[in-house]
Amino acid sequence: MGYTLTFLGCGVMGQAVLSAIYNAPKVTDAAIAKLYPSKIIACNHNDETAMGVTKLIESLPPSPNGIIVESTFGENDRAVKEADIVFLGTKPFIVEETMRKVKEHMGEKLLISICAGWTIEQLTAYSRNVSRVMTNTPAKYGYGCAIVAHSPTVNENQRAIVSQLISQVGKYIELPEKNMDAATALVGSGPAFVLLMLESLMESGIQMGIPLKESKECALKVMEGTVKMVEMSGEHPGVLKHQVCTPGGTTIAGLCVMEDKGVKSGIIRGVEEAANVAAKLGKKK
Ligand SMILES: NC(=O)c1ccc[n+]([C@@H]2O[C@H](COP(=O)([O-])OP(=O)(O)OC[C@H]3O[C@@H](n4cnc5c(N)ncnc54)[C@H](OP(=O)(O)O)[C@@H]3O)[C@@H](O)[C@H]2O)c1
Questions:
Q1: Model confidence, pTM
Q2: By alpha-carbon position, which residue is closest to atom 43 of ligand 1?
Q3: Which of 66, 142, 188, 280 has CA atoms 20 to 30 A from the CA of 27?
Q4: What span, in angstroms and rounded, lies between the C-alpha atoms of 159 and 177?
């Protein structure tokens, strides 16, 4: 019999992580199988959102590792009491109110938080065992990235559980907590920045007369292919970029205009600004 994992707040990100854990491929190694919950309780505030989680689970094939999901609303107290591990996925501004109400049932239960701006130190008000995670929406499709930091009391077994569960969203990277604001910007907000680039490429095609559908297909494949090329070659992006630049050719001409327009520094400064806002989120509480 495995353990119970309670999601306090199971909206966009919570459902992405829940589906990734629920859909994890069948594990045959008994030691790894023990890292998965046998039951997940998803807690939300409204009936409608709870129903959304039920429909999501119904739309999926049965969990390969036999995980059962119960979706509830207004039952945080009971769900945290039943939990062995609590996953916190509410919006940052209601963390204090939500956690205060269930604190008496927390004890030393592992608290895994994905809430932007909430530091490990702040969260230790509810349990001394905290794993702080920053992930992103592609997690829903298994192509997410998760940056993770633990409080010093999180033990080996708990670290193994967090690593096994959270790596299901895609890539799992442990970093010191001091990097979390930067990770919030680069990883959490990152998809929006990449979508802006994708949309711009698409619109460049439309501007020059390529129909919308084909412009989208071209832009998507260019992005996907470029990422794969960097991954598979192991080369620095700058090296690959220069390989595409024929002297006096089209690519260098386009790159020069982009440099004139400050595209690169605009991206760097934009991500940095997102990190500044993430740092302020923590201080508002
Ligand atoms: N979205 C992203 O791209 C992203 C990326 C990285 C990190 N994050 C972090 O992920 C967290 C969640 O963001 P999100 O985008 O998933 O927000 P969301 O879709 O609004 O989900 C939050 C959920 O919390 C539920 N909730 C509200 N009050 C509650 C309560 N008292 N008890 C239990 N559940 C309650 C809401 O349920 P109802 O709908 O029933 O009110 C909602 O389903 C945030 O802290 C954010 O910083 C998000």
A1: 0.92
A2: 11
A3: 188
A4: 15
Residue span(s) of the chain under CATH 3.40.50.720 come to 3-178
Question: Whole-angstrom Cα distance, residue 268 to residue 41?
Answer: 40
CATH 3.30.70.260 fits 3-178, yes or no: no
Beta sheet of 68-73, edge-to-edge order: 68-73, 37-44, 3-8, 85-88, 110-113, 130-134, 144-150, 170-174
Neighbouring residues of 251: CB distance < 8 A, sequence distance ≥ 6? 244, 245
Q: How far is the CA of 93 from the centre of ligand 1 (A)?
A: 10
Return per-residue pLDDT of the chain as tens, 285 residues.
689 999 999 999 999 999 999 999 999 999 999 999 999 999 999 999 999 999 999 999 999 999 999 999 999 999 999 999 999 999 999 999 999 999 999 999 999 999 998 999 999 999 999 999 999 999 988 899 999 999 999 999 999 999 999 999 999 999 999 999 999 999 999 999 999 999 999 999 999 999 999 999 999 999 999 999 999 999 999 999 999 999 999 999 999 999 999 999 999 999 999 999 998 876 655
Question: Is 76 a known ligand-binding residue?
Answer: yes
- For the chain, where do the domains classified as CATH 1.10.3730.10 start and end? 190-281
Measuring from each residue's beta carbon to the nearest atom of ligand 1, which residues come in under 6 Å? 8-14, 43-46, 49, 73, 76, 89-92, 94, 98, 114-116, 135-137, 188
Whether domain 190-281 has CATH 1.10.3730.10: yes
CA dist 274 and 186 (Å) reads 8
Which atom from ligand 1 is nearest to the alpha carbon of 15? 16
